[in-house]
């Protein structure tokens, strides 16, 4: 090889090497979630699940037609219902089945907290879950039912015994949003 060709090859390799360093070492992650007009969009193949927090600039109304969400827990000694509306209002009703005493309360959450729940419902695969999960070997377990109602549909998933991960994450988020939490009187 002559001197000019050697220099040209070295320059091309240096440019290619610099580009690779900038692209893969210094550059940003290509496999991530990007906020686009208030909606989380896949960029590449993200290893992380879709974010559950509100995408900046997003409108709560854009997400799942602003569903209302209800969690019902049936234990051998009580029935507890937590309902959350698209306005962020949370209503709690607890019935002690021994003395038929009913306890009610209500509170509100911020639109960001509500949007976080709605995003979690969407990203957890809730709409792909089966309608019922039941462990026939249990005798005195708790039954959890989550009902998500939108303009277009009502999705109901019940779980007795071990629940799918996405279902459990939603149940725990609803309980967390209701500041009083759920008190298991049947355990």
Descriptive account of the structure:
The chain is an alpha+beta fold and 187 residues long. The chain has two domains: 1-30; 65-177, Mago nashi protein, CATH 3.30.1560.10. The protein has three helices and nine strands. It has helices at 3-26, 111-123, 165-177, and strands at residues 32-36, 39-43, 68-74, 78-84, 89-96, 101-108, 132-134, 143-149, 154-160. The chain has a seven-stranded mixed beta sheet, covered by helices on one side. β8 (143-149) and β9 form a beta hairpin. α2 packs antiparallel against α3. The relative contact order is 0.15. Residues 59-64 and 180-187 have low confidence and may be disordered.
Secondary-structure map with pairings?
Blueprint: H1 3-26, E1 32-36, E2 39-43, E3 68-74, E4 78-84, E5 89-96, E6 101-108, H2 111-123, E7 132-134, E8 143-149, E9 154-160, H3 165-177
Parallel strand pairs: 7-9
Antiparallel strand pairs: 1-2, 3-4, 3-8, 4-5, 5-6, 8-9
Supply database-style keywords.
187 residues; single chain; two-stranded antiparallel sheet; alpha+beta; disordered C terminus; seven-stranded mixed sheet; 9 strands; elongated; 3 helices; Mago nashi protein
Short note summarizing the structure:
The protein is of the alpha+beta class and 187 residues long.
Q: Roughly what percent helix? A: 25-40%
CATH topology of the largest domain: Mago nashi protein
Report the total helices. Answer: 3
Q: Which strands sit side by side, in order, in the main sheet?
A: 6-5-4-3-8-9-7
Q: Can you tell me the residue ranges where pLDDT is under 50 for at least 5 consecutive residues?
A: 59-64, 180-187
């Amino acid at each position: 090889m002559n001197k000019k060709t050697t220099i040209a090859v070295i320059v091309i390799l240096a440019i290619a090497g610099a580009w690779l360093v900038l692209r893969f070492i210094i550059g940003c992650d290509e496999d991530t979630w990007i906020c686009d007009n208030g909606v989380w969009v896949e960029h590449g193949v993200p290893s992380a699940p879709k974010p559950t927090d509100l995408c900046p600039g997003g409108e709560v109304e854009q997400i799942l037609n602003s569903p209302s969400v209800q969690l019902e827990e049936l234990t051998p000694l009580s029935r507890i219902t937590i309902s959350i509306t698209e306005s962020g209002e949370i209503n709690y009703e607890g019935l002690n089945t021994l003395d038929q005493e009913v306890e009610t309360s209500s509170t509100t959450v911020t639109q960001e907290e509500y949007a976080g729940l709605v995003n979690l419902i969407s990203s957890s695969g809730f709409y792909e879950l089966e309608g019922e999960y039941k462990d026939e070997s249990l005798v005195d377990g708790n039954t959890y039912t989550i009902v998500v109602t939108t303009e277009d549909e009502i999705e109901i998933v019940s779980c007795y015994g071990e629940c799918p991960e996405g279902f459990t994450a939603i149940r725990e988020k609803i309980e967390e949003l209701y500041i009083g939490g759920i008190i298991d009187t049947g355990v």
